[in-house]
């Protein structure tokens, strides 16, 4: 319920409104006064703090928590995570040969050490606890549970044909995501893989398939993936895009890494690239990063490799092509190829549509990875925009406000749809935290949980115990972390990830 602004106090450099003194008669309001006085008085006891529940421990969760902890002295944050281990896609998405990206974990560890913060791992919201059970225990909930599914191609038998996977599953397999540790892709029956999509994730999986093993062996890639890649016969990877080079969504860093792969040639339709660069010169003169990307592509495709022996590897960017049919062996059902329909572009060059021409091409392949986007899933009781794969929100505040959705916020991929790097996720996490702080300033958000309901995790612990759910706290996660690092060190790896939930729980002593 909004309150009238009458008392204004300085609060960490911000102006903070509080309700009129005459209305401060309930216990919750007394707690409210103490809460807002936090900058000049010692922090009140934990039950008097603003209690925030978070769902998801990826970058969005940690950056939102960091900004709130920095700006709200009297806040308690409980972060629920479905897995026994934290960090979301930083652990299970970011490519193993990008260790510098994973350095954000050091920052997240510092956040987790804050006494006002609690990590509650191995608790899946919507399964172990419902949102409706969480809601009454928290003054605010922040949902940052990312995107745990992927977009489909919509081809017949896409899920039934062996060796056709989502890039999400393949990435999860080499990065140790427990749900995909048994994916077992066949990398030996064919020398050619196809990746549908031309974004950074597509380039990540292509690079992992083609890069020298001695480099990969020094990363935190899982041992089972490394073993399979050692036996791999894959030498050629085609990346398929519906539209043209100007519309490709990978970025320069990832492209440079692909071009720099030793003994690996890039193939693409150079005349098409040149004609698009010419036609799009007005766009390219305004968008320098895109122009540089196109120049890099041209350089990569026209630079003859000194070593083009028959054993050389290759990768290709096939533009203006849509997958229409998976070709299988009639007897074994094994994947043997992919039929593509050639497209032409219609509409403005900065946002053209791909339109099929009816011309069909077939390329042989034995492994197909679709990398056309991740997808968030709805949580019961909340609005969901299934087209954009996100919870509708304004600056992180969930819309369609009713008594259930009020006090619920979103951050990260769930907030803006499943795209964007960690830096973008950080900025929108800060925006969500600022929205919460503004709502506090406006008096729309305040400690409100009455004395009859124990706030936060305290009230839910026994419920979880009764359901047989064993919680992994941050201390227990650090035990897993230590074992992983200790197992990786003799192999020259930063860590050897534990890939089974049971084993994680055993190490955590749960
Ligand atoms: C393959 C891949 C590679 C990438 N590489 C890079 C890179 O090199 N550099 C870069 O800057 N960015 C990279 N990104 C982007 C980056 O990972 C994202 O910007 C970022 O992780 C999004 O953060 P998030 O917190 O919204 O989601 P996530 O990181 O997905 O975190 C969501 C968390 O919520 C948990 N969760 C899910 N459901 C529930 C539930 N019901 N209950 C409790 N917890 C739940 C998940 O287990 C997960 O821990 C990459 C992304 C992908 C997919």
UniProtKB/TrEMBL annotation:
**Gene3D superfamilies membership:** FAD/NAD(P)-binding domain, NAD(P)-binding Rossmann-like Domain
Q: Per the entry, which co-factors are needed? A: FAD
Q: Which residues bind NADP(+)?
A: 198-201, 242-243, 254, 420
Q: What is its main location?
A: mitochondrion
GO biological processes: intracellular iron ion homeostasis; ubiquinone biosynthetic process
Binding residues annotated for FAD, in chain numbering? 60, 81, 89, 125, 413, 420-422
Which EC numbers does the record give? 1.18.1.6
Per its record, the protein catalyses: 2 reduced [adrenodoxin] + NADP(+) + H(+) = 2 oxidized [adrenodoxin] + NADPH
Q: Name one GO cellular component term.
A: mitochondrial inner membrane
The GO terms this record gives for MF are: FAD binding; ferredoxin-NAD+ reductase activity; ferredoxin-NADP+ reductase activity
Task: List the InterPro entries hit by this protein, alphabetically.
Answer: FAD/NAD-bd_sf, Ferredox_Rdtase, Ferredox_Rdtase_adrenod
**Alphabetically ordered keywords of this record:** Electron transport, FAD, Flavoprotein, Mitochondrion, NADP, Oxidoreductase, Transit peptide, Transport
Q: Which enzyme type, at the first EC level?
A: oxidoreductase
Kindly indicate whether the keyword Oxidoreductase belongs to this entry: yes
Keyword match Aminoacyl-tRNA synthetase: no
Q: Where in the cell is it found?
A: Mitochondrion
The family classification in the record reads:
Belongs to the ferredoxin--NADP reductase type 1 family.
Q: Which PANTHER family match?
A: GLUTAMATE SYNTHASE 1 [NADH], CHLOROPLASTIC-LIKE
Protein name per UniProt: NADPH:adrenodoxin oxidoreductase, mitochondrial
């Amino acid at each position: 319920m909004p309150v009238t602004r009458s008392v204004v106090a300085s609060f960490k450099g911000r102006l903070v409104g509080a309700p009129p003194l005459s209305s401060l008669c309930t216990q919750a309001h007394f707690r409210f006064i103490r809460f807002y006085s936090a900058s000049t008085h010692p922090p009140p006891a934990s039950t008097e703090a603003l209690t925030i529940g978070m769902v998801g421990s990826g970058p969005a969760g940690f950056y939102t928590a960091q900004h709130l902890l920095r700006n709200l002295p009297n806040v308690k944050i409980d972060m629920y995570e479905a897995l026994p281990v934290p960090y979301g896609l930083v652990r299970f998405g970011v490519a193993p040969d990008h260790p510098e990206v994973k350095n954000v974990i050091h920052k997240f560890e510092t956040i987790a050490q804050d006494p006002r913060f609690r990590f509650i791992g191995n608790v899946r919201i919507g399964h172990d606890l419902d949102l409706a059970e969480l809601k009454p225990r928290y003054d605010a909930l922040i949902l940052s549970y990312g995107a745990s599914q992927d977009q489909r191609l919509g081809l017949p038998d896409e899920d039934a044909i062996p060796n056709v996977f989502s890039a999400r599953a393949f990435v999860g397999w080499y990065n140790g995501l427990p749900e995909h540790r048994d994916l077992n892709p066949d990398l030996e029956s064919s020398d050619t893989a196809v990746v549908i999509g031309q974004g950074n994730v597509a380039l990540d999986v292509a690079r992992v398939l083609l890069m020298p093993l001695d480099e990969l062996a020094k990363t935190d890639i899982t041992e089972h993936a490394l073993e399979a890649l050692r036996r791999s016969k894959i030498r050629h990877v085609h990346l398929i895009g519906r539209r043209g080079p100007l519309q490709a969504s990978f970025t320069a860093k990832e492209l440079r890494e692909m071009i720099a792969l030793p003994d690996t040639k890039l193939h693409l339709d150079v005349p098409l690239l040149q004609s698009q660069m010419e036609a799009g010169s007005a766009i390219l003169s305004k968008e320098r990063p895109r122009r540089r990307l196109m120049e890099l592509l041209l350089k990569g495709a026209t630079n003859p490799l000194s070593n083009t022996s028959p054993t050389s590897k290759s990768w290709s960017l096939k533009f203006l092509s849509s997958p229409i049919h998976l070709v299988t062996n009639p007897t074994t059902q094994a994947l043997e190829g992919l039929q593509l329909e050639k497209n032409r572009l219609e509409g403005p060059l900065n946002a053209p549509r791909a339109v099929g021409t009816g011309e069909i091409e077939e390329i042989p392949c034995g492994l197909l990875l679709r990398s056309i986007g991740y997808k968030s899933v709805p949580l019961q009781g909340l609005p969901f925009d299934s087209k954009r794969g996100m919870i509708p929100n304004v600056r992180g505040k969930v819309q369609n406000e009713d008594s259930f959705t009020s006090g619920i916020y979103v951050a990260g991929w769930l907030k803006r749809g499943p795209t964007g790097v960690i830096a973008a996720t950080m900025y929108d996490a800060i925006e969500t935290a600022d929205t919460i702080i503004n709502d506090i300033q406006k008096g729309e958000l305040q400690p409100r949980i009455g004395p009859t309901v124990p706030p936060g995790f305290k009230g839910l612990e026994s419920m979880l115990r009764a359901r047989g759910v064993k919680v992994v706290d941050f201390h227990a996660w650090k035990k897993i972390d230590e074992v992983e690092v200790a197992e990786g060190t003799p192999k020259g790896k930063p860590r050897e990830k534990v890939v089974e939930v049971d084993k994680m729980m055993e190490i955590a002593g749960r």
